[in-house]
Q: What sequence folds into this?
């Protein structure tokens, strides 16, 4: 289990994404909001600190696929622009 009281700087940023018993994803969550949160997280962590040098877009898609949501999401509104995401590895549900 992770030490919740540890300063954030002492915790590996990738550990924060590890599955924990106190974190749960809702299958009913707004997929665009979740994707925007992952984009925001990637920028806060620093894009150069992403695992294996993946891009922010690829990181966001990987996390959505890991949560098994957002298969049909192709772009995320980000201010006045749209951020396009790579295709999902999940089947699109109608």
A:
């Amino acid at each position: 289990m992770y030490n919740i009281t540890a300063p954030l700087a002492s915790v590996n940023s990738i550990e924060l994404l590890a599955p924990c018993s106190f974190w749960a994803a809702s299958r009913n969550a707004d997929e665009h909001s979740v994707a925007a949160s992952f984009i925001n997280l990637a920028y806060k962590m620093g894009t150069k600190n992403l695992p294996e040098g993946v891009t922010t877009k690829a990181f966001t898609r990987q996390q959505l696929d890991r949560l098994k949501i957002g298969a049909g999401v192709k772009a995320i509104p980000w201010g006045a622009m749209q951020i396009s995401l790579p295709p999902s590895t999940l089947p699109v549900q109608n």
